[in-house]
Amino acid sequence: MRTEAWAVVINNQINVRSVSPTRIAAMVNYLCTDKGFIALNTTTDSQVEKLWQYHKGNAELKRVEIYIIGERQPEELGGMDW
Questions:
Q1: What's the predicted TM-score (pTM) here?
Q2: What angle do the packed helices 45-55 and 23-33 form, to 10 degrees?
Q3: Which contiguous run of DSSP H or E holds residue 30?
């Protein structure tokens, strides 16, 4: 199965933790996982855009194609309770 998504790309390398169906969500994923920010329910798209512009460095947002080759169930991921 193939799907399209947004991702942060740095030096032609996809940051896998940033992959998301929307542009804003990809920014949030990157800012939270790589830059240590916390996004709240009250965080606005405008705030995310401003943080992205300030902290992106040489990172770029790009549309990517994702090919799903399999799925793991929560119990296969160490028993995490989703």
A1: 0.80
A2: 60
A3: helix 23-33
| Helical ranges in 1-82 per DSSP H | 23-33, 45-55
pLDDT digits (tens, 9 = 90+) for 49-75: 999 999 999 999 999 998 888 777 766
Domain boundaries, the chain: 2-70
Distance, CA of 67 to CA of 7 (rounded, Å)? 14
Which residue is it, tokens 């990172």?
Answer: 59
Is 68 in contact with 2 (CB distance < 8 Å)?
yes
Taking the C-alpha atoms of residue 48 and residue 38, their distance in angstroms, rounded to an integer, is 11
The amino acid occupying position 51 is: L
pLDDT on residue 79: 56
Residue 61: both structure tokens together: 């947002």
Compute φ and ψ for 14, nearest 5 degrees: -75, 130
